[in-house]
Structures are given as structure tokens and as C-alpha cells.
């Protein structure tokens, strides 16, 4: 979807013109999206340690097995 060139206020004004049922549905979808983004951001910190050089020792076993199979 291409970027929208509207201000937050303009978007709110459009949303508030919708029937209440539609506004509630949009609010639920926004909340779900916000929760997903928050969980993804939290999970990024959990895997940060995998990028540390010390973690490469676990890759050695796979390399050793490959060498031994040749």
C-alpha cells in the first residue's frame, strides 16, 4: 500500500465520520496491530545474544560433521 499523505487529524476526521460499528472494528484492528508490533519488539531483545561472537561455537559442530562426511 502506498504511503498516505494525510495528517493524523485528517485521518481522525475521516474515521469519525464512519458509523460507530466501523469505528469500533478499526479500533480493534489497530489494537491488535499495536500488540503484535510490541511483541515483535520485545522478542528482538530476546535473540540479541545470538549475534554475539561467542555463540559461533555452536556452528562448529555442523562444520565438523560436514568435514567428517566428506
Report on the architecture of this protein.
The protein is mostly helical and 70 residues long. 64% of the residues lie in helices and 0% in strands. The protein is built from 3 helices and no strands. The chain is elongated and about 65 Å long. The chain starts with 7 loop residues before the first helix and ends with a helix. The mean pLDDT is 81.
Keywords:
mainly alpha; 70 residues; 3 helices
Concise summary:
The chain has helices at 8-15, 20-46, 60-69. The protein has 70 residues and is mainly α. The chain has one domain (8-69).
Taken from the alpha-carbon principal axes, the silhouette is elongated
- The total of helices stands at 3
How many whole angstroms does the radius of gyration measure? 24 Å
Tell me the total number of β-strands: 0
Main sheet record: none
Unreliable stretches (pLDDT < 50, length at least 5) are none
Number of domains: 1
Indicate the proportion of strand residues: under 5%
Mean pLDDT over all positions:
81
Query: Helical amount among residues, as a percent range?
Result: 55-70%
Structural class: mainly alpha
Distance between the termini: 49 Å
SSE ordering: HHH
What is this structure's SSE topology?
Elements: H1 8-15, H2 20-46, H3 60-69
